[in-house]
């Protein structure tokens, strides 16, 4: 290995007080602190604290090294796989919190559930759930959009996973998931430092949430077994899938994968849409183009899956929104071997944080990076985007397994909502980012609602329109 040079970075805290100060910076202004440090030190810098060392990465070539070229030299970070303090205490060994050979086996087993044909069947559920929400909005003038997006994406994931409609059970699942999300995203110093045996209110709530989820999910598994047939939902796929030796998953493993898909599969999409509404409310020219496309292609009709490819601008809007506000703004690894990363050496055990938020706003790869400009993602322009400078779904073998599901869902929801409503910020409203497990608008996103004059449903179908 070449010279063992470590990357630059701030002075490590020298006492407990300085350590607390650093933790406080992360708690109160994580994105600001990280962005300023990238400006100061470059696309790789290190942070040392409490005897641990973490490299922060925002350089496309290094992102490629970590996620693709040398992917087998990294595992997920302890924030994920530590079963005492990491996400694994809730998710067990689901895909997000698993590694090595076991993860490889599971990834192969779960993959068929996300094959294009399979997920295309979920388009109708997405349209139905969104339509029910829009009907409920009629006559309202303000809404917490965050709440609405979370609710409907949860409903969609519950239905597609378990074929369970909104019901008392789905509500209980929703409450449990919300409690878990709050616990997972908690950056509070108190929660991090307090010994685990102290039952803080948060910990009591998350324990109850896990108990509730277990009861519901094991119940659904038991119900499924009575018939044992493919209902078209993700649970059926998880129950029926077999590895090369013909072995399936244990009930516990199905539970872990199902809870993982829940957690990974709804607030990411909800937040993609939240930020899209926020950006559209401030960029009327983009909004006008979006409306034009939707009105021309759909008229007043509901979209079908086949319509989506004829709505390219709306897809570009989503991609650009995920550039500025990537829901998974940061994801972690740990080096399981000594590794060379460009000019720098990372000893075994080094923590790695990949910052999509920063690489997505780097002026070296993005012209006027703070500007919302969906045209960056037109077919002509997209081919010039620097590789690994746009990673909303990660990259390499651990790339998001639900990315097509998420894009289809966000696309359908965006066109259906924008077809019927215009969402506005109220005068002087300030929206702040809350960087939890995903990037959320702090305190919700309260928007004004204006009903649009939707064209009458056309007598020709949208497919006939194409030929006109
Ligand atoms: C806009 C929505 C979404 C975004 C931005 C997103 C983002 C990501 C990212 C960045 C990763 C990689 C993390 C890493 O490398 O450490 C990931 C992994 C994952 N995502 Fe998504 N995701 C979204 C939606 C979904 C949906 C809808 C599902 C499932 C229904 C899902 C399930 C997963 C799972 C299971 C993994 C772990 C894959 C593995 O490690 O094998 N995601 N996601």
Please, could you describe this protein's structure?
There is one protein chain. This protein is α+β, with helices and mostly antiparallel strands and 468 residues long. Helices cover 51% and strands 11% of the residues. Strand 10 and strand 11 form a beta hairpin. Helix 7 (123-137) packs antiparallel against helix 8, helix 8 packs antiparallel against helix 13 (251-282) and helix 13 runs parallel beside helix 18 (403-420). The longest helix has 32 residues, at 251-282.
Give a quick rundown of the structure.
The protein is of the alpha+beta class. The chain has one domain (16-467): Cytochrome p450 (Orthogonal Bundle). It has 19 helices and 12 strands.
Total domain modules: 1
Ions, cofactors and other ligands present here are: protoporphyrin IX containing FE
Q: Proportion of β residues?
A: 5-15%
CATH homologous superfamily (4th level) name = Cytochrome P450
Count of beta strands:
12
Termini gap? 64 Å
Helix content percent band: 40-55%
| CATH fold annotation | Cytochrome p450
CATH architecture: Orthogonal Bundle
Please tell me the overall pLDDT. 89
Largest sheet: 5 strands, mixed
Number of distinct helices: 19
Q: Give the CATH class.
A: Mainly Alpha
Helix and strand composition category: alpha+beta
Structural shape: globular
Biggest sheet strand line-up: 1-2-8-5-3
Question: What gyration radius follows from the Cα positions, in whole Å?
Answer: 23 Å
- Flag low-confidence runs: 456-468
């Amino acid at each position: 290995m070449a010279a063992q040079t470590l990357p630059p970075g701030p002075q490590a805290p020298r006492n407990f007080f300085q350590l607390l100060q650093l933790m406080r910076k992360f708690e109160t202004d994580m994105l600001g602190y990280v962005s300023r440090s990238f400006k100061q030190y470059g696309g790789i810098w290190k942070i040392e604290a409490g005897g641990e060392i973490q490299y922060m990465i925002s350089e496309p070539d290094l992102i490629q090294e970590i996620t693709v070229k040398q992917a087998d030299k990294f595992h997920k970070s302890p924030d994920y796989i530590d079963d005492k303090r990491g996400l694994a205490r809730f998710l067990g060994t689901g895909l997000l919190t698993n590694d090595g050979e076991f993860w490889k086996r599971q990834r192969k087993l779960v993959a068929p559930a996300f094959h294009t044909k399979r997920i295309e069947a979920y388009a109708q559920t997405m349209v139905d759930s969104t339509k029910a929400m829009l009907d409920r909005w009629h006559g309202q003038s303000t809404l917490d959009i965050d709440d609405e997006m979370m609710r409907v994406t949860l409903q969609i994931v519950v239905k597609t996973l378990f074929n369970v409609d909104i019901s008392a059970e789905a509500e209980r699942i929703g409450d449990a998931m919300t409690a878990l999300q709050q616990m997972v995203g908690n950056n509070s110093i108190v929660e991090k430092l307090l010994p685990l045996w102290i039952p803080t209110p948060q910990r009591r709530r998350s324990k109850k949430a896990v108990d509730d989820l277990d009861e519901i999910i094991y119940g659904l598994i038991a119900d499924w077994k009575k018939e044992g047939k493919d209902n078209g939902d993700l649970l059926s796929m998880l129950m029926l899938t077999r590895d090369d030796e013909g072995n399936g998953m244990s009930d516990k493993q199905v539970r872990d994968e199902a809870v993982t898909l829940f957690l990974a599969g709804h607030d990411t999409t909800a937040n993609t849409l939240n930020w899209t509404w926020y950006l559209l409310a401030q960029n009327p020219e983009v909004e006008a183009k979006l409306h034009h496309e939707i009105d021309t292609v759909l008229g007043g009709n509901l979209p079908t899956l086949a319509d989506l490819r004829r709505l390219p601008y709306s897809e570009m809007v989503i991609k650009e929104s995920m550039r500025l506000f990537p829901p998974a703004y940061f994801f972690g690894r740990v080096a399981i071997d000594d590794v060379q990363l460009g000019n720098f050496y990372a000893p075994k055990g080094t923590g790695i944080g990949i910052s999509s938020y920063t690489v997505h706003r780097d002026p070296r790869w993005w012209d006027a990076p703070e500007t919302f400009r969906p045209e960056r993602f037109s077919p002509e322009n997209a081919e010039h985007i620097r590789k690994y400078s746009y990673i909303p779904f990660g990259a390499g073998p651990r790339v998001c397994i639900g990315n097509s599901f998420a894009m289809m869902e966000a696309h359908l929801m965006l066109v259906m909502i924008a077809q019927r409503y215009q969402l506005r910020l109220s005068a002087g409203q300030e929206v702040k980012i809350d960087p939890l497990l995903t990037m959320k608008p702090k305190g919700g996103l309260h928007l004004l609602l204006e009903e649009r004059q939707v064209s009458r449903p056309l007598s020709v179908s949208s497919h006939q329109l194409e030929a006109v």
